[in-house]
Amino acid sequence: MSLELIDYLVFFGYCFLIVGMGLFVSREKKGHIKNSSDYFLASKALPWWAVGASLIASNISAEQFIGMSGSGYAMGLAIATYEWMAAATLLVVAIFFLPVYLKKGIYTMPGFLFDRYDNRVRTTMAIFWLLLYVFVNLTSVLYLGALTLNTILDIPLIYGIVGLAIFSLLYSIYGGLKAVAWTDVIQVVFLIAGGLAATYIALGMVGDGDAWQGLSTLRQKVPNHFSMIFSKDDPFYQQLPGLSVLIGGMWITNLSYWGFNQYITQRALAAINIDQAQKGMIFAGFLKLLMPLIVVIPGIAALVIVNNGTDLSFIESMKDPVTGLIKSDRAYPSLLQILPVGLKGLAFAALTAAIVSSLASMANSTSTIFTMDLYTKYFDKSASEAKQVNVGRITAIVAFVIASFVAPALGQLDQAFQFIQEYTGFISPGVFAIFFFGVFWKKTTSNAALVGASLSIPLSVLLKIVFPSTIHLFDNLIIVFPEMPFIDRMGWVFLVLSALMILISLVEGKGKDHPKSIEINQELFQTSTGFKIGAILIIGIIAALYTIFW
Predict the structure, then answer these.
(1) Does 10 map to a domain?
(2) Cβ contact 267:283 at 8 Å
(3) Is 483 within a domain?
(4) How many CB atoms lie within 10 A of CB 496?
(5) Statement: residue 270 has pLDDT above 90
(6) Is pLDDT at 462 greater than 80 in this prediction?
(7) Is a pLDDT exceeding 70 seen at residue 98?
(8) CA 391 to CA 127: how far, in whole Å?
(9) From CA 65, how far away is CA 376, in angstroms rounded?
(10) Per-residue pLDDT at 468 exceeds 70
(11) In terms of residue numbers, what domain contains 67?
């Protein structure tokens, strides 16, 4: 994709705006020394709109723009279930988990596990999350982001990795979460504006210049791509197994991500108060409802353009340069190439915003966990506030350096993003179990939590090996285990872990409540009228969407 002068001006204008904004909000009043609350929780001063914007900016990255557009090309609107179900999940987290977190006054998710269980559970999960954020999350976003830049602008992979890392550090290293969260407000504006511009142009191509007509044309040309619930005979059933996306394992992966993930929940923990945090969740929920229009519909439009066969240059850009075959993941980069001057720079800025906001969020959360859950507990228990902030900054730099060295190795994996998603999904059932029972069942013991956390991966791997397989017991007795969808596998692992945790807790605790159990009451889950109205609207919109596109 070639950029004109105005495109470069738009893009570099965005870069200077983000760095300038980050440095501006990071400045301190004369005589004030930045403390751990300032750096890791943005002084607990984020209003609802900053919380919501930062949640979405942290969540959306290159894999959504590229991967979900590719999935839209291949399987259609059904992939939007990840976005729409996330909106419902945000409501659950806002009502049932956020009040508990804020009441505890925690900085990190491992910190909550210490308050509820013991130091073993906190340290175990802190180490795990650090490894996950550095070697999986940061590494994968750096790699996929650099791969996107390579695909669109032919920038060498290593230059893209280093450039994205440095850009993310420029505005986030000094100010911490305050810089990340406030710049995310601008990032979301670019992300949505640039994304909608690409969608508008794509629909206009399909609808002969009329975007609204283009949307209607999509449903006429590829009606099968507007079905949300797949039947068992659908080729994509293994990825989105029918009703399981509504009442099954999809809840586990969503709640694990939105409810117990440090770089997501940290934004809500930094809110002014519980009401602002919950309203921020509502705002993020409405933005999630909008996201399929930005990241899924363009992929479906690309399919119709290819099927029409009239735009030969577009079809050529969809082909893999090595195999010569059309590749679904090239849908979004191909659409960017046909944008008019100016909008092309805006869309490129939106894509970059999605990448660097996620990188900055992950690095900040990595530094928060290391500093608050490991450094101040094991290395320097009397560390001053200023020292904690400096340790956090050094940790973020080290995390980026490690991830930058590891990222190129992902190029050796086939479909690296799918591999990373599945690996993370091996952990989700265990994480969900220890938080869910920790909050809502007073009898859950620390040993039960350790078992739940430690068996999540082995059980997931076991089910992956067994399903599919064929076992010959005798000459005439054969047991066939069909392939199990990944989402269903998470559900079964959660049920097994839940049974084990309940059994261990009852035997060990002899029916008594755990000494560190959480006292919950109806008043804890009270919400404002504004939140209730927003929640009803979100539930109503989701119900309408699934009714229309069932």
Answers:
(1) yes
(2) no
(3) no
(4) 18
(5) no
(6) yes
(7) yes
(8) 17
(9) 38
(10) no
(11) 5-28+49-85+143-412
